[in-house]
Design brief:
The chain has 328 residues and is an all-alpha fold. The chain has 13 helices and 3 strands; from the N terminus they run αααααααβββαααααα. The longest helix has 20 residues.
Amino acid sequence: MVNSEPRRQFRSALTPLLDQYVELKHACGHRFHGGFAMLLRFDRHLLASGLTSIELPRDMTREWLAKRVHERATTHASRVATVRRFAEYLVRLGYCAYVPDRRLGPKTSGAAFTPRIFTHEEIHQLLQAVDELEPTSFAPMRHRVMPEVLRLLYGCGCRVCEVLHLRVEDVDLDRGVLKIRGAKFGKDRLVPPATALVQRLRTYADGLDDRRPEAPFFPGVRDAPWSPGGVYRNFRELLLGCGIPHGGRGNGPRLHDLRHTFAVHTLLRWYQQGADLDAKLPVLATYLGHCSVEGTQRYLHLTAELHPEITRRTNESFGDVIPRRIGP
């Protein structure tokens, strides 16, 4: 996969090791955009602080990691974690490096984020509302783009960046297959949408002005793809119009919750069809682009929590398919 990181360079005494660390992340399949940006700012701090030797001093590090005014707890925690991992890397290579304590980050309750799973009725409301969107001067194509984007997020469980990065050549409407390129961990995969959605995409594609293979399938302004921010703003408008409450920044519903909803609704449908959910997990994992079924298995927990009767009836037929969740 081509590295799309900005061509900004590290400049401190740790430049060779920072470059090596970033290359290692890329080699392991991580895009590392956010981590690269944070390390770049950390590098500028070390340079301004006068670091001249290959080491990671305690005082310089703690000064940069201090909590900033109005900084979100999640951002602070991310800075601490990013620098800690790089420091651990230096130590493994035999260099003198201060490894920040995890307690430097914000205290949390330890509770994991719980996705917002939409009901079937809420999905019906959202799809009906998105089909009624009108174009605006700021988004003259939203009435055409948003209905198909929303259906791909829910109907295929795609990540929003995967949908918006689709090019014309990635959407094979003859075979009814989407090619998702360079997804999480650098994996490509093929996703076959439902027949009805393929037909909708054909109708949408017939109205595209630019049919060059490399052109964005969902074009925005200046030949660029539609932006995630634009999709999110319209999504919030749809939630408001449907009377679906939003918990505020960071509390959802999020666009990514449509992917979670797809997974839970798929498992629910398979259960209602009498399928062995445990045997179906590899199928769902492949469709979603997960590296293993471990990441997919959490959807079994979510499905069972939302529909408690599934645990009892599934275990009666197949044994303890849905293990009890341990911890928060």
